[in-house]
Amino acid sequence: MAEIKACIFDLDGVIVDTAKYHYRAWKRLCNKLGFDLTEEENESLKGISREGSLNILLKKGGLSLSDNKKADLTALKNGWYLEFIEKMKADEALPGAIEFIKATKESGRKIALGSSSRNALKILETLEIVDLFDAVIDGTKVSRGKPDPQTFQLGAEALKMHPCECVVFEDAQAGVEAALAGGMYIIGVGNKTTLNRANHTIEGFQNVGMEIFEKL
Ligand code: B16
Ligand code: MG
């Protein structure tokens, strides 16, 4: 059995249901550009940086744009996303997620955030959970986004842990690949089929306790 001393939590889609807001904002942008984005297609964007996501979408739409135009479009999408986030309430955390993080902390394990989002701190503040984290690695701190392992490697380093002492909680395929590439354990949060490369999968944190670490 693995000895897990630290947990690294993804944010969007793991702690809080902001994945739906990213989807709505990207869909709106695609529609403005003349094509659609289904929920299934959106799966491949989860965990991917803002710029990386736009590049995937432009390819899908068969569009080639200048860097300036791309910067305008990511700013537009982020503006719409922030409108959703501004209306977000502290109770929009996913059921059981904050309770699970608190229990993990009380069990003596270290806690880090490992998110691709440059809006992560704002969301942690809205949820009033900044103080729960021993380290926060977000999109402002990385040069290589998921599926590159950098986000989680920086998390493990900040907690002074070896990768094999860490487990990552992720809802995105890109995040699962990032954790595996970093040599960490990975628990998928969401669909077992989509996240089939994870060491273990849970549907959510409701009724999940410290026994989860025995699955690894
Ligand atoms: P932002 P996570 C990721 O957050 C989202 O899953 C992804 O959809 C988004 O494009 C990315 O953050 C960048 O977010 O535009 O807010 O900087 O899942 O890694 O917590
Ligand atoms: Mg996510």
Fold and architecture overview:
With 216 residues, this protein is α/β, with parallel strands linked by helices. It has two domains: 6-16 and 91-215, Rossmann fold (3-Layer(aba) Sandwich), CATH 3.40.50.1000; 19-85, DNA polymerase, domain 1 (Orthogonal Bundle), CATH 1.10.150.240. The chain has eight helices and six strands; from the N terminus they run βαααααβαβαβαββ. Helix 1 packs across helix 4. The protein is globular, with a radius of gyration of 17 Å. The protein starts with 5 loop residues before the first strand and ends in a 14-residue tail after the last strand. The mean pLDDT is 96. Magnesium ion binds next to loops.
Q: Helicity level, as a percent range?
A: 25-40%
CATH architecture of the largest domain: 3-Layer(aba) Sandwich
SSE class? alpha/beta
How many H/I helical runs? 8
What order do the strands of the largest sheet run in, or round the barrel if closed?
3-2-1-4-5-6
Straight-line N-to-C gap? 6 Å
In the CATH scheme, the class of the largest domain would be: Alpha Beta
Tell me the total number of β-strands. 6
Kindly report the name of the CATH homologous superfamily of the largest domain: HAD superfamily/HAD-like
Ligands and ions found: 1,6-di-O-phosphono-beta-D-glucopyranose, magnesium ion
CATH topology of the largest domain: Rossmann fold
Unreliable spans are none
Query: How would you state the average pLDDT, rounded?
Result: 96
Largest sheet: 6 strands, parallel
How would you name the oligomeric state of the polypeptide chains in this document?
Answer: single chain
Shape: globular
Number of domains: 2
Pattern of helices and strands: EHHHHHEHEHEHEE
The value of Rg in angstroms is 17 Å
